[in-house]
Structure formats: structure tokens, C-alpha cells
Specification:
This protein is mainly alpha-helical and 126 residues long. The chain has six helices and two strands, in the order αααββααα. The radius of gyration is 19 Å and the shape is elongated.
């Protein structure tokens, strides 16, 4: 898997495209205007960078380019997660969870979800 580094803003665009592609520049601007305040020109600039990185592609539409994600969402999220773990916690998932537990940042629901995930992982080892 080719690792693509996305900025926070690029993640915003990718999430819109992963949810409902294709999108034109006008549609992306409309979808992101309220949460980001970005202009059409900002979107165009970001799409150009993302195309250079291989994150998006486009087809020529009748009136406008139709943009699509060029990378898989699951693989991209996994790569970002692994990068974060390596950078912040030296690759230690245990250290991440311990930090969240110590700071009381886990709700009962999140603890239950973690138990379920760990139970599934344990079952797969058997």
C-alpha cells in the first residue's frame, strides 16, 4: 500500500468524496462551505495538490470535472492510524489506551466496545 500523507483539510475533502463520489468543484465547495468557509479557489488548489499525491482523480464531465477518491478509505485510515501510533506512542497501542484510561477519557460505552474488540481478536487467535 502506497502511503499518502493528507493534511487536515485534505481529509475533509476525502471524507466528502468517500461518502458520495463523484463530486464537482461546485458540489465540494457547497458541501464544505459551512464547516470550513473555503472558497472555490481554495478547493481547486487543494484538489490540485491531492491529484499530485495520487489521492484523487477526475473524469471530464459534460460541464465540469467529476472528482473521485483514488485511494481506498480503509487503507488510508489504517496508514494514518499506524503513522500516528508510531509518531506519538512509538507504535504502542497499549500506551495509547493506557493514556486514555489514565485521563478518564473513555466512556462506559467505549470501554464496552474495547472489550468486544478484544474478545473478537482473542477468538481469532484460537
Amino acid at each position: 500500500m502506497k502511503r499518502i500523507n493528507l493534511s487536515d483539510g485534505e481529509w475533509n475533502i476525502m471524507n466528502v468524496l468517500w461518502a458520495d463520489a463523484p463530486k464537482t468543484i461546485t458540489q465540494l465547495t457547497s458541501a464544505l462551505k459551512e464547516s470550513t468557509g473555503w472558497s472555490k479557489h481554495t478547493i481547486i488548489t487543494m484538489l490540485g495538490r491531492m491529484e499530485s499525491k495520487g489521492a484523487v482523480r477526475y473524469d471530464e464531465g459534460i460541464r465540469a470535472k467529476q472528482y473521485y477518491p483514488a485511494v481506498d478509505q480503509t487503507e488510508t485510515v489504517l496508514g494514518e492510524t499506524e503513522s500516528f501510533l508510531d509518531k506519538v506512542y512509538s507504535g504502542s497501542l497499549g500506551l495509547l489506551v493506557n493514556t486514555l484510561v489514565e485521563k478518564n477519557n473513555l466512556s462506559k460505552q467505549e470501554i464496552d466496545e474495547l472489550y468486544d474488540i478484544l474478545k473478537r481478536a482473542e477468538e481469532e487467535l484460537k
